[in-house]
Amino acid sequence: PYPFPLLEELTAGAPPDGKLVYVVRCDDGFRGPVKVGIAHDVAFRVRKMQVSNPYPLRLLGTLPGGRVVERRIHEHLASYRLRGEWFDLDMNALAWLVTLFVMSRSQEEAA
Fold first, then answer.
1. pTM exceeding the 0.70 threshold for the entire prediction
2. H-run or E-run covering 101
3. Of 11, 26, 82, 85, which sees the most CB atoms within 10 A?
């Protein structure tokens, strides 16, 4: 339903590097920007980012795949890029990311 790739396409051939792709939203009371990054310890990374951010940060989800998957997601979201790893997503792009989280979690639970 979205003009974006499925989880299998994003993770195909991605070597495991022990990192997770995370998506964090800046909760500015409206429709804040979203950051797509990677980390070994996502909770620590979010806490570290929160120190330098004036708005609450909310973790939307994580995906396996590390740097390769992060780069592929960045490529698909290029038209939404604000700066660096921060994006201003519309509802279709945000729905795509949420769908990826749900698919990933379903695969983990089935394994």
1. yes
2. helix 91-110
3. 11
